[in-house]
Specification:
Layout lengths: L24 H10 L23 E3 L10 H5 L9 E5 L5 E5 L6 H12 L21 H7 L6 H4 L2 E9 L4 E7 L4 H13 L9 E8 L4 E4 L11 E7 L1 E6 L9 E5 L4 E4 L8 E7 L44 H8 L11 H5 L2 H7 L23 H7 L3 H11 L2 E8 L12
Antiparallel strand pairs: 1-2, 2-3, 3-11, 4-5, 4-6, 6-13, 7-12, 8-11, 8-13, 9-10, 9-12
């Protein structure tokens, strides 16, 4: 699991040429799209919201669906599977792209999890090398409360979930394993099942936080013992240019836009293909996030019918998350911080089984079993409640952060089914 933003070494910086002496197209395209002056020509970049940019380069991907909507689709804030727009690159077999399948409002929940909860201890993050974070504190709250620490979030680059990947030995450390977040596990299992991997078991993840101007050099992800399982990548916040190539560096990579809510699955041959993120592109005005992450007073009411520009034109009444009314949000917004319990977001709304498992913020190092069975995301008002605990002013701080950051969540199965890191 070598994925990490530019301040973490990747093998891209060590290769001026391909090992066979051929042209290193991965590096060439990375430098091309990273260039600031003159800016690159983006006319060849695939935009999955604009069919004119990908004709003859992609094909529709057939999902594993029975043709009818299942309640489980909305369990994790997803639209009905049969409504997903899914494509596969012809040049890279197994590279699957899902155009933002999230219900309107669900991205607020997942981004808040990434910002406020996932950096909590005992999860490992890049800031550990410079400070000791109290288990009762969060990087986000420290940044909000203390002027001395107001740039902590700007310094946060990665957080590991589940099995910890050690960049010093470039491998997983079996003794460093913490419970994988149950809601994220359920989400990625559901996605994996839809693309043909019903037995997928999420065991390790890395949450990358890219600032504007950030990047990740070309590399492959090949450290898991069983590479037959897909890598699932979720993107939130600012837009990225993503490069996906082939098994060697002399295969010219394809460039594509990845926007907030988009999902990438790297399976089959693409699982070990070279890929990179040369550029983060600002969306919206200064201090404004993408439209899909802005506060809306009627966000969770059933009468929302307006469309957001970066919701790919799929928002309708049936895709609005039910469970809260304008009145509910107005009343809750009047609560001050002392009237709310400051606990991890999922702990507030998970069922008792999950709450007990998270009370110590994941200190129990036993492998998580039945990882998707305790999540109560299927309750109609689950996502609504996650936002009800915030005032407009508090969400505004999230908006400012998301106006300058791309969050990327990469999830993978580490070992063969029935094995552990130490036994594989």
């Amino acid at each position: 699991m070598a994925d990490a933003p530019a301040d973490i070494p990747s093998d891209e910086s060590c290769h001026q040429k391909s090992p066979n002496g051929r042209v290193d197209y991965v590096r060439e395209e990375y430098k091309r799209y990273k260039r600031k002056k003159p800016p690159p020509d983006f006319s060849e970049v695939i935009d999955f919201r604009d069919p004119s940019t990908f004709r003859d380069r992609v094909e529709k991907f057939q999902l594993q669906t029975q043709g009818k909507c299942d309640k489980s689709d909305s369990n994790f804030g997803l639209r009905c599977v049969k409504e997903w727009q899914v494509y596969e690159l012809k040049s890279c077999s197994g590279f699957i792209f899902i155009v933002n399948p999230f219900l309107h409002g669900a991205q607020h929940y997942w981004t808040r999890r990434c910002i406020e909860d996932f950096p909590r201890k005992p999860n490992v993050c890049n800031l550990d090398a410079h400070m000791t974070l109290d288990t009762r504190e969060t990087v986000w709250r420290l940044s909000q409360r203390n002027n001395e620490n107001n740039n902590l979030m700007d310094k946060l680059r990665w957080v590991h979930l589940g099995y910890h990947f050690d960049y010093n030995i470039v491998n997983y450390k079996p003794e460093r394993h913490y419970n994988f977040p149950s809601d994220l596990a359920g989400l990625t299992k559901h996605i994996a099942s839809a693309v043909g991997y019903p037995d997928y078991s999420p065991e390790a993840g890395i949450v990358n936080y890219y600032p504007l101007g950030g990047s990740m050099g070309g590399h492959t992800d090949h450290y898991e013992s069983d590479l037959s399982w897909p890598l699932i990548s979720l993107s939130f916040g600012q837009t990225a240019i993503f490069l996906i190539g082939g098994a060697t560096r002399d295969v010219r990579p394809v460039a594509l836009y990845v926007r907030s809510g988009d999902i990438i699955i790297m399976s089959g041959k693409s699982r070990t293909a070279f890929h990179a993120v040369p550029r983060i592109i600002k969306v919206g005005k200064e201090n404004e996030p993408p439209c899909c992450l802005k506060w809306e007073d009627g966000l969770f009411s059933r009468d929302v019918t307006s469309r957001n520009p970066d919701e790919s034109g799929v928002l309708d009444e049936s895709s609005v998350i039910p469970g809260a009314t304008n009145k509910d949000i107005t009343i809750t917004s009047c609560l001050n911080r002392t009237q709310r319990i400051e606990k991890p977001l999922f702990q507030k709304f998970g069922d008792d089984k999950i709450i007990r498992g998270l009370e110590e913020v994941g200190i129990d190092e036993r492998r998580h079993s039945e990882i998707d069975e305790g999540c109560r995301c299927d309750q109609p008002n689950f996502f609504a409640k996650s936002i009800e605990t915030l005032t407009l002013e508090e969400w505004r701080e999230f908006e400012i952060y998301l106006s300058k950051t791309r969050i990327n969540v990469n999830v993978r199965q580490v070992h063969e089914s029935g094995k552990t890191v130490s036994s594989s």
